[in-house]
Each structure stands twice: as C-alpha cells, then as structure tokens.
C-alpha cells in the first residue's frame, strides 16, 4: 500500500494530519458495532445500552517532554490527563486506562514510582482504574503510551462534525498559557546549560509553568453542561492550538466560523509574559497548544442556560463553509485563519 519502487514521499511533507488522512483512506470498518473509527477525539463502539469510547496518546522523551525540567510525578499526571481530555471531548466519562512504558537505562525504580504516583493521583481525581499495560526497554529515552476507555450514550455524545450555522462557539478556561510556560522553561534551561551556577528563575511565571507541566482535563465542564442539560452540537479538546481545533470542527462539520479576537480568553500572566518574550498572546492561543481545554458549539437556544456556566467563553459563531474561517479583530477587520498547530512530523 505505502511502498512504491520509484518514489519516496517524506512524511515531513505530508504533515501529521495528512498522514492520518492517508492511513484512514485505506481503512474500512466492518463490524456493525463500530460507530466511529478514525477522525474524532475517540473511537466509538456500540455496546448496546451505552457507547464505549477509546483513545490513545503517546508521549516521547525529547519530543513531548524534557526530563531536565519535567518532574516525573507531573509527567505521570499529564500523560493520563491528555487521554482523559479526549474522552471528555466526546461528552463522555472515563472509566479505565492501560499504561505502556518504554524504559531507558536512565530510569530507576524510584523514577518509575514517581511516574506512577502522578498517574495514581490522576486516576483518583477522575475516578478511573488503571487496569494494565505493557513494559519494554527503550533505546531512545522514556516512552509513555496510555489508552483510555470511557463511556457515554448515543443521546449525549458530541462529535466534531455536528456544528450548525449560527451555533455559538465556546471555549473553556484560558488559552496559550501552556505554550508560554514551555517558552519560559526552555529559556531557563538554555541559561542553565550555558552557566550552571545560575538557578532557574520562574518568578511570576507559576501559572504558565503549571499549565505546561500539570494540565487538568475538564471533567468539571462536562459535569456542569450535564447539570444544565446542554449537549454541545460539536466538541473537541484543545491540544494543538485553537486554530487547529477550529479547522477540525469546521472541516468535519463542513462549516466555517468567525472568531472574535477580543473574546479569546487569555490569562493576564500569560499575556504579560508573552509580551516580555516578544510573542503575540493571540498567536500563542491560536497556535500554541497543550491547553487541554474544551472547544465546543451550542445552539443559540442554549445560550441563556450556558451563561450560567463559569469560566466558559463565547468566542464566535459557526457560519456556512463558503464564508471560510476567520479571526475578527477589534476594528472588525477579518483575517483568514491558518492552522499551524503542533505538527510532530514537521518538527515544529
Ligand atoms: P487527538 O489530538 O484528539 O489525540 P489525533 O490528531 O492524534 O487526535 O488523531 C486524530 C484521529 O486519527 C483519531 O481518530 C486517531 O485515533 C487517529 N489516528 C492517529 N494516528 C493514527 C494511526 N497511526 N493509525 C490510525 N489512526 C490514527
Ligand atoms: Mg483531542
């Protein structure tokens, strides 16, 4: 399927999403209980009285984390959160995880214990069980792959493809902080490597650094929506930056959108540090990634109810596909959106 004697296509040219599309084009699901295969935050399996949700995410040392500034307990916690976030993004409830590890000889028993401490804490907070996994040695640093299982129902599930024209686009929490936190950690690491006598200075950057090292999947948002009886018409978690996730929702739903720049939630510390680093806070929110917030759309008729939710921001609305995707600034000027999320295969 992928081999051709006369040509060689570099994966970097395709990008991560291009490659996934290519893989997906050769797959047809045959079991009638497969409701959703590739293409959403989770795969969906019909279990009769409920829908089962399955998602997996891999974190690699040197690509997704740097052990010189990422405490193992936090890493364990984060590796669970990134998976739970995908279950919540389907309007589901996580129930179980399995954990597979590739361990290099730099990792001691004590290090593994710390990693699991973080995972246990995550499981406890979100009421899930760790039920298995796999362990291997690794020649290329620490590898953590977690698969999460969850459940929802046919009535409650939110896919990426359900957004309708005039639906209101909502984002939870605030955006861009994890990206700015990473810039600070990288800066301090460089300073330390050049002069090990200088201790890292993270003063005033507690929030952004915590957002990078210890994200929290938004179970509370899913619970609050449930309490109000709101089922989002579409939903995705914000792992690759707001722009990339808007593209996923609009592509899947065959729609466009208008996002109002001044409505994008950006924390004051994030904005201040971004400016100190000569980075545009809006771009950090649009293209940064690793926020693990939820991006979802609701019907206009749910707006009054949704206003009762704290920490939910109404950032724009869905349009027809022909109108495209655009960011509207304070002076009503529209800029077409560009998806520039993290794209591991391009090495960004
Ligand atoms: P997320 O950012 O929510 O974790 P991804 O962008 O990683 O989602 O994946 C998008 C979709 O592609 C998902 O349905 C996922 O299961 C699928 N996918 C990703 N990588 C592969 C792969 N190597 N083989 C098959 N499906 C894949
Ligand atoms: Mg996701």
Query: Radius of gyration, rounded?
Result: 20 Å
Write out the CATH superfamily name of the largest domain.
PurM-like C-terminal domain
Sequence of secondary-structure elements: HEEEHEHEEEHHHEHEHHEHEEE
Spans where pLDDT lies below 50 across 5 or more residues: none
N→C terminal distance: 28 Å
**The CATH topology of the largest domain:** Phosphoribosyl-aminoimidazole Synthetase, Chain A, domain 2
Summary tags:
348 residues; alpha+beta; 60s Ribosomal Protein L30, Chain: A; Phosphoribosyl-aminoimidazole Synthetase, Chain A, domain 2; 2 domains; seven-stranded mixed β-sheet; six-stranded mixed β-sheet; 10 helices; globular; binds adenosine-5'-diphosphate; binds magnesium ion
How would you describe the overall organization of this protein?
This protein has 348 residues and is α+β, with helices and mostly antiparallel strands. It has 2 domains: 12-152, PurM-like, N-terminal domain (60s Ribosomal Protein L30, Chain: A), CATH 3.30.1330; 160-336, Phosphoribosyl-aminoimidazole Synthetase, Chain A, domain 2. 34% of the residues lie in helices and 24% in strands. It has 10 helices and 13 strands. The strands form 2 sheets. It has a 7-stranded mixed beta sheet with strand order 8-10-7-11-9-12-13, with helices on both faces. A 6-stranded mixed beta sheet has the order 1-2-3-6-4-5, with helices on one face. Strand 4 (93-103), helix 3 and strand 5 (129-137) form a beta-alpha-beta unit. Helix 2 (72-88) packs parallel to helix 3 (109-126) and helix 4 (177-194) packs across helix 5. The longest helix has 18 residues, at 109-126. The radius of gyration is 20 Å and the shape is globular. The two termini are 28 Å apart. The model has no long low-confidence stretch (mean pLDDT 94). The structure holds adenosine-5'-diphosphate and magnesium ion.
